[in-house]
Amino acid sequence: MNKFKFENLIIWQKAMDLGEEIDVLTASFPDKEKYNLSSQIRRAADSIASNISEGSIGQSNPEQKKFIGYAIRSLAEVVTCLYKSRNRNYLTIAQFDNLYEKSYDEYDDRI
Questions:
Q1: What is the pTM of this model?
Q2: Exposed/middle/buried for residue 62 (C-beta within 10 Å: 0-12, 13-18, 19+)
Q3: Residue 84 and residue 30: Cα distance in Å, rounded?
Q4: Tens digits of residue pLDDT in 68-96
Q5: Which of 2, 45, 82, 86 is the most buried (most CB within 10 A)?
């Protein structure tokens, strides 16, 4: 089976995993956050992988850099939402630390 170029990118695979993990965790957030924080962090996390894939498909180098920039901004948004989630006691310290480390590793190692 043929694959798109981005499907072979480890950073895209990790971004997909991060999005799925955040989706599972936000399911336990209070109902009052359904359309606020939980929605915001899920959309930002999903945007990371989306921008990586969009930037990898037949674009020029400046175009690829633009979409990587969008992915980095989405990652920063995820980290901010992680802090808000921890501060509101929706995440344990261990959950926060785990997701923070995964987020930092994505930025530091790949993006």
A1: 0.91
A2: exposed
A3: 13
A4: 999 999 999 999 999 999 999 999 999 99
A5: 45
